[in-house]
Amino acid sequence: MKAYMCVICGFVYEEEEGHPETGIEPGTRWEDVPINWVCPDCGAGKEDFEMIEI
């Protein structure tokens, strides 16, 4: 599983954990996260996230 970081605020989305607070179930791959999902911390779009290694 991969992780993606918001380049605006540093929020990290981890596929393994998902983000249940915004309706993204654990294990949801980044490509399966809806295109209109936004960073829960700053509101940035998916295009503002980059894959990182943890």
Kindly summarize this structure in a few lines.
The chain has strands at residues 3-6, 12-14, 49-52. It is an all-beta fold. It starts with a strand and ends with a strand.
Can you give a write-up of this model?
The chain is 0% helix and 20% strand. Strands 2-1-3 form a three-stranded antiparallel beta sheet, with no helix packed on it. The protein has 54 residues and is mainly beta. It has no helices and three strands.
- Mean pLDDT figure: 97
How far is the N terminus from the C terminus?
10 Å
Largest sheet: 3 strands, antiparallel
Characterize the overall form.
globular
What is this structure's SSE topology?
Blueprint: E1 3-6, E2 12-14, E3 49-52
Antiparallel strand pairs: 1-2, 1-3
Describe this protein with a few key phrases:
54 residues, mainly beta, 3 strands, 0% helix
